[in-house]
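User: Please run a holo structure prediction.
Assistant: Happy to. Please share the sequence and the ligand.
User: Here you go; the ligand is beta-D-fructofuranose.
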Amino acid sequence: MTNDTWRNEYHLSPKSGRMNDPCGLCEFKGVYHFFYQLNPEWPDRKAPKCWGHATSTDLVTWKNLEPAIKPDSAFDANGAFSGSAIQHNGKLYLYYTGNVEEVGGHDHITDGRQSSVVMVSTADGRTFSSKKVVLRNADYPKECSCIVRDPKVWEKDGTLYMLLGARDRNNEGLALVYSSTDGISWKFSNSIRSDNPFGYMWEAPNRILLDGREFLAVCPQGLKEDLLKFENNYQAGYFWLSDPVPSTTMVDEATFNEWDHGFDFYTPQSFVDQQGRTILVGWLGVPGAGYGSRPDNPNGNPRFSGCLSVPRQLSLVCDEDGVDYIRQWPVSEVEALRGKAQSLRGGELALDGHHADIVLDHIDERAGSITLDDDLTFSFGNYRATLRFAEDATSSAGRTKRSCAMPENSIHSLRILVDETAVEVYVNDGMWVFSTRWFPTTSKLTISTDIDHSDASVYQLEHKNA
Ligand code: FRU
């Protein structure tokens, strides 16, 4: 295995170390800045996280820089955990969770953990100010445990708002809302809970505004699998809000939709870029999933681990039955990487390398399947779609299958992005998405399908990350 075995080209991954959540996503002064959770000491699992930092001007070519925030203070000694960025007064303000786990007989849930919100600013996106603690445990409502984290900040009508994810003392997940006029002093506004308990902790909360409608995205931990829903260890999805934040205090858990129905998509964060696009990016991984990112996994490169999804543009769309949903679609910059279109004549094609954009439009079949490398199959029919690894596929690194229920005869298009160790399947122009990591060992990507009635084009994607 070389240093660069399983190196993605357009999916952002760290130079070395292990990446998890995207943090502080933004476009600042014409440059995209993506920060992310990074354990630079990987495979030492216990080493504290810092904020890795990468920049781009096109969302597909990434330059990894030095970590932006290191856990070098008393209030973040056990990790500079996740958070977000906001532009304010010409500067970029970064808010993150300073995690401290006290030694000696604590459960680190109800006691022995400090979860502070810390702020750092930058005027140039390269040099960062000293740190300022703006909220600490004593500032959270009494019903909360000491697990409160992942500040997401935005501005509305001159006021700054912050969402925090929390676990209460009855082991129920909730989000906390704070407001501020200067970004430094924050006042508690209200909490947001579900009508019925919905998991024991809500990680990485996020507020999304699309066409005047607001959504609360959270990552609930502790949901039970339920008829082709919630098949992963933890979930990532969004609730429809009847009132905007901060007026909302309750959400209806029946409105919760999962962003992605594959194996690997967690703690997504959204931001609005200077073109006004609302862009969602998730970590292609799930904590504790038991596959893929373990140092002892023969299929993972131990030198670097984890990657982010491609940036997905969000839009609010109405389906044929008049039901609104959030569509996710790869930003158009991905298409600029396409080489010449090749056809899938006879249902088979082999490409050099695993970097492809596979498009099947105008599908006119009740059921069908498409397989990559004889290992990974996406199939649909019989009221469901499924992403499944062959039983003997070592590329799966322990993954098996994931499904999602859908109406019969409802699939009309598929787009599959392949990038060395990442596969993202977009169904019906982004109505449903299925993502997974995989670790292929062949030099060629083989594609085979029994979907005869469609317009199929396959593009090799040609690119090198900086
Ligand atoms: C989610 C998460 C966050 C936390 C971060 C630590 O994956 O647990 O809640 O801030 O990871 O890396």
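The longest strand covers residues 144-156.
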